[in-house]
Records
---
Amino acid sequence: MTALSPVTTMFVAILVTFVCTRLITRHIRSRETPRGAFNNVAIGGVHIHHQVFGIIAMLGSGVALMSVLKGKSSPESSACSSRPWP
């Protein structure tokens, strides 16, 4: 079995993500009562957009990365290294 090229892998990943997103959206918007994990999220009657969860996940992963790299000063672990661009 041959390995897929990076472009093919990216295309398949985007296609699978798109199809899954559309299926989840159709499930949420169906006239039936949504069941399972994929429902609209509301707190006190206010809809919480799905991007809120992504933003929280990004903030959490950034804080975790900074805590892991605390005290390290190698160019590989710092976004603001003093090493000049090649």
---
Amino acid sequence: MVTLRMIVCVCNAISEQEIKDWVELGGSSMSELSDDLGLGTYCGSCRDCARQIVTDSVQARLPDAIHQLQDEAEPTPKLSGFVAVARAIGS
């Protein structure tokens, strides 16, 4: 079976999947992408497409990141009904 790769940056042979993998590793800005992978350092015609891939990939990771943060947060202790009412009315 042949795996097709969409090449985003022809000058540096950087694929869409490589950009997505880079985002999964924590990348999130075009300047980082350029520094880390060399994308857009020659002709620059790939930058708009790459920016969209980065944006979409970062947004796709947000629900997972939020869920992970919620899982890592310490649970708040449950208050008895009396204490909860007292706090609610400011006593």
---
Amino acid sequence: MKFPLGPILVRNVEDATVRKLRRRAERRGRTMNEEVCQILRNAVQDEDRPFTELAVATRPGRVARRRFVRKPRDSKVKQTNAR
């Protein structure tokens, strides 16, 4: 059973941000309250996933590319230090 926890009050939100939220909600056929709730849900939905998993999910190939580039660089450093 779900129990509502009560309102959250956010202070000092810039006027431009409020206007953008209102337009976004209108485009999606939601009230501003529903839109803000959905944004908050999306923001916390993946909080338990490991960071590397999130990085791959949001920017595919990014983590793999870093590993690929790093290996040759690390081997050059080892060669230089061995001299």
